[in-house]
Design goal:
The chain has 79 residues and is an alpha+beta fold. It contains four helices and three strands; from the N terminus they run βααββαα. Helices cover 38% and strands 19% of the residues. A hairpin with a 2-residue loop joins strand 2 and strand 3. The longest helix has 10 residues.
Length: 79
């Protein structure tokens, strides 16, 4: 992935978009740190999850955990 300084990306935005469409995602940095990625919409849509989070959680197999601990109070703790 090519990296662009923010001021260069702003000045040459059309080129950044063209390269994102032809070559793949383009990283834009601000103050020397990676800030954002410019990428083709088709790549973004392909990377989006196909199901919602609730459906994902409901699809996880349930596991019955038999956790036992002493119920006497107060518990002794070492300080």
């Amino acid at each position: 992935m090519e990296s662009w300084k923010l001021q260069d990306a702003k000045a040459r935005f059309s080129e950044v978009v063209d390269r994102a469409l032809k070559e793949g995602p383009q990283i834009v940095t601000r103050h020397g740190e990676k800030a954002v990625v410019v990428m083709a919409y088709r790549d973004f849509a392909a990377a989006e999850p196909q199901e919602d989070f609730k459906s994902f959680l409901l699809s996880i197999p349930q596991v019955d955990l038999d956790v036992k601990r002493p119920r006497r109070l107060p518990r002794k703790t070492k300080l």
